[in-house]
Amino acid sequence: MAQKQQLDSPQTGDNMYDVFMQTLVAASQLPFVKVDRQTFLRKQFKNDPHLKTILEKGPQRVYKPEALERKAKKIISEMTLQTSAASFVAGLPGGPAALAAGTADVVQFYGFALNLAQQIAYLYGEKELFNNGGKDLDEEVKIRIIAYLGGMFGIAGATPLIAKIAKDTGQAMGKRALAKPLTKTVWYPIIKQIGKSLGQRVTKQTVQKAANKIVPIIGGVLSGGLTYLTFKPLGENLSTVFVKNLRGEFDEMLTEADLNPKFLNQIISETADTDLIEEAQFTEKH
C-alpha cells in the first residue's frame, strides 16, 4: 500500500513530467528531428497543380480527409522502416554503458516520433512547429509536442487538446497566440497530466532498452523488432485523430464553457498554486 501511495504522489508525478521534458529537449536537438513544412509539402505534392494553395492554406484545403489518410499511411510505413533500422544499430550491445546507451536509444526513438508527428501534422494542415529554428522550445511548441505525442500513445485528454490546438491555429492565422490562453485555462492541468504519462513511458522504455543491450546481438534484434511493432501504430493513432478532426467529429465535444463553474474555479486555482510553487523553486535555484 505504501508503494502504491508513493507512485501516485504529486512529487512522483512531477518527476515524471520533468523526465519527459528533459527527453523532449534532448530529442529536439537531434539533427534529423526538425521538418521544414514547406520543403515537406513540396516533396509530397511536387507535381500537384494545386501546390500553391497547399503551401499557403494546407493540404486539407484541397483534399478530402480520406485522401490525406492514404498518403499518411505511406509516410508512416516509410518512417517505421527508417526508425527500425536506426534502432537496430543503437540496440547493439553496449557493455558497461548499457544504461546510458538505453537512455540515448529512447531519446532517439522520441526524436523519430517527433519527426513523424510533424509530417503528419503538416499533412493535415498544421502550421510550422519550430518557427524559431528549434533552439529554444517556447510554451506553444512544448504544448503542441505534448499533444502530438500524447495522441500517438492514445493518452486521455490528448485528442481534444489536438482539436483545440488545430482550431486555435486556424483562428490565429499564423500568429503565435496559442500558448498563453492554454496555460492559463482548464487545459493546463490536462497538458501537465499528459506530460506525466509520457514521462512514465520514457522511464519504462529506458529500462527495457538497457535490458535488451545486456543480451549479445539479440538486443539489436529486439530493439529493431519492438520499434517496428510499436512505431507504426503510434503514427496511425495520430493520423486518425487528425482525420476525425477534419471530419468534424470533435465539434460536439464538451468544452471549458460546459464545465461546472465551481469545478472550473477549483482547477484554475490548483493550477495557479502549482505555478506559484514552481516559480518559487526556480527563483530559489537561481
Strand count: 0
How would you classify the helix and strand content by structural class? mainly alpha
Order of helices and strands: HHHHHHHHHHHH
The radius of gyration computed from the alpha-carbon positions, rounded to a whole number of angstroms, is 20 Å
Characterize the overall form. Answer: globular
Work out the strand percent: under 5%
Low-confidence segments, given as residue ranges, are 1-11, 94-102, 172-177, 210-219, 273-286
Average of pLDDT = 74
Number of continuous helical runs: 12
Q: Helical content, roughly? A: over 70%
Count of the separate structural domains: 2
Measure the end-to-end span: 37 Å
Classify the oligomer. single chain
Largest sheet: none
Descriptive labels:
286 residues; mainly alpha; disordered C terminus; ABC transporter ATPase
Question: What would you note in describing this structure?
Answer:
Residues 1-11, 94-102, 172-177, 210-219 and 273-286 have low confidence and may be disordered. Helix 2 packs across helix 10 (187-214). The chain folds into 2 domains: 2-253, no CATH class; 259-286. The chain contains 12 helices and no strands. By secondary structure, the protein is mostly helical. 73% of the residues lie in helices and 0% in strands. The chain has helices spanning 2-7, 10-28, 37-44, 51-57, 65-90, 98-123, 139-153, 158-172, 179-183, 187-214, 218-246, 261-285. The protein is globular.
